[in-house]
Design brief:
single chain, alpha/beta, Beta-carbonic Anhydrase, Chain A, 10 helices, 6 strands, 17% strand, binds zinc ion
Length: 212
């Protein structure tokens, strides 16, 4: 099927199916506005759609998706901070209780750092500078496990990048304030879509714990 026709057919199916089943929920969300309790930063990757893998209902999640689910640090300058704008809206307008950074295995963005082209050329205008946000995680992996395979390095880097984003979240004053007084909690999650595993970061044990 043509990929665009598949989407419009999908919408018609939604209208006659799930929308009809949840019409009351949608009407309430329109009349009273959305009040999600959780904001989530996920990768743009087509295989890890949060509403699919977490089986959410409309109104449950405020989602920001970008390459490699990264959070940039707070910056005063600049004009086009898409991820920061979404975080600001989630925290200050929607007043969410939780912020989740959802990393994932086989992330193309993370992998790109380990796969430099042999000719040294680079035709990326935006991805390379964007991924430099987690260069510290990349360098740590290269330094601590130089003989590991790219797959092993990428997996460790994917999880380390989640922790870098959690640290960067704390550089935003409104987030730091709300975490300090208990109004907001931060979470680091990691999904492996091949084994269908969910791993949640335990800050006490300092590792990702598999959810049974
Ligand atoms: Zn990804």
């Amino acid at each position: 099927m043509d990929p665009i026709a598949k989407l419009t057919a999908g919408f018609k199916q939604f209208r006659g199916g799930r929308f009809e089943e949840q019409r009351g929920t949608y009407e309430t969300l329109v009349d009273e506005g959305q009040r999600p309790k959780v904001a989530l930063i996920a990768c743009s990757d087509s295989r890890v759609d949060p509403t699919v893998v977490l089986q959410t209902d409309p109104g449950d999640l405020f989602i920001v998706r970008n390459v490699a689910n990264l959070v940039p640090p707070y910056e005063e300058g600049g004009e086009f901070h898409g991820t920061s704008a979404a975080l600001e809206f989630a925290v200050q307008n929607l007043e969410v209780d939780h912020l989740i950074v959802l990393g994932h295995a086989h992330c193309g963005g993370i992998r790109s750092m380990f796969e430099e082209r042999e000719d040294g050329a680079d035709d990326s205008q935006f991805v390379v500078p964007w991924m430099s946000l987690v260069r510290s995680a990349y360098l740590r992996v290269q330094g601590t496990m130089p003989d590991a395979s790219i797959e092993e390095k990428a997996r460790v880097c994917e999880q380390s990048a989640v922790l870098v984003s959690l640290e960067n979240l704390m550089t935003f004053p409104p987030i730091r304030d709300r975490v300090s007084d208990g109004r907001l909690r931060l979470h680091g999650w990691y999904i492996d879509i091949r084994s269908c595993g969910l791993h949640i970061y335990d800050p006490v044990q300092q590792h990702f714990e598999a959810v049974g």
